[in-house]
Amino acid sequence: MRNSEERAEGAGPFVSRLTWRLEEGGTAVWESRAARKRGTLDVRPAGAAESRARRAGTVALDRLRRLNDVAAVSFTVGGTLFALGAALAQFSAGRPLTSATIYFTGGVFFTLGGYASLVQSINAPRREGTAGALTTHGFRWWSYEPGRIDWVSTFVLFAGTLVFGVNLLDSFLRGLTAQQQNRLVWTPDMVGCLLFLISGHLAIAEICHGPPCLRRRSLGWWIVAVNQLGSVLFMVSAVAAFTPPETGSEVSVGVANWGTLTGALCFAVAGVLQVFERP
């Protein structure tokens, strides 16, 4: 079956939606997130009022479902633990080591969720050959595909979780000077927050196929939007956690704790929502 590409949409050099006119009539629409998260593309036969979804094979769908569940549960647990750690830091007079341990455990789950998201992108069904079908390749744990917006977004997210890991490990150190605190703890925190924001911006561009948009009926849009709100709150927390050498104390401990708590809850909520965005 021959077909011709009719329209490509996306942000910058990335294509996140392709529409074809099929030779036998009708159109086929591939969207990056729909193929990656649900394993589907939409085909509208000639004369049909509504489109119908064509799905990838059973093996591919089972694979995507498992990866989606791992990512969703990991972000839910990680976000919950981060919120708990921030709450203890804000309201409890307990030892800082307790909050640091809870944060680190939450960070492990965040890293697992970030990697599961990347692997899901790597193994997403591809739009190859005919426009009305998806192709599934053999399972891979790693790839390098900077031309795909979903790969870049999830890779940057995973990198951000690794940088956060440096911040969380260094937070166990005690007796640091203000300069050491900023270099070993605060700087990785800022870099991780920046990577989260970049990843979220790319995820918005992927689902909107360009500039930010409002899609209230799209579950994927809500997941991306809530995650990005969480990233913004994490950044607010990181800025407030800076330690000026002249004072030796954080700019605002309360803002730092509340920013972490509310941002973590956003990621936990988005993780719960992600359970329902599956094949």
Describe the structure.
- With 279 residues, the protein is of the alpha+beta class.
- The chain folds into two domains: 3-55, no CATH class; 58-274.
- The protein is 59% helix and 10% strand.
- The protein has seven helices and five strands; from the N terminus they run E-E-E-H-E-E-H-H-H-H-H-H.
- The protein has helices at 32-38, 58-91, 96-122, 149-170, 178-208, 219-240, 253-274, and strands at residues 3-9, 17-22, 27-31, 40-44, 52-55.
- A five-stranded antiparallel beta sheet has the order 1-2-3-4-5.
- Helix 4 (149-170) runs antiparallel to helix 5 (178-208).
The average pLDDT is: 89
Head-to-tail CA distance between termini = 27 Å
Domain tally: 2
CA radius of gyration: 21 Å
As residue ranges, the low-confidence spans are none
Order of helices and strands: EEEHEEHHHHHH
Gross morphology: elongated
**What proportion strand?**
5-15%
Report the structural category.
alpha+beta
Instruction: Kindly report the spatial arrangement of strands forming the biggest sheet.
Output: 1-2-3-4-5
Oligomeric state of the chains?
single chain
What's the tally of helices?
A: 7
Assign a percent range to the helix content: 55-70%
Q: Count the E strands.
A: 5
Give a short account of the largest sheet.
Answer: 5 strands, antiparallel
Descriptors:
279 residues; single chain; alpha+beta
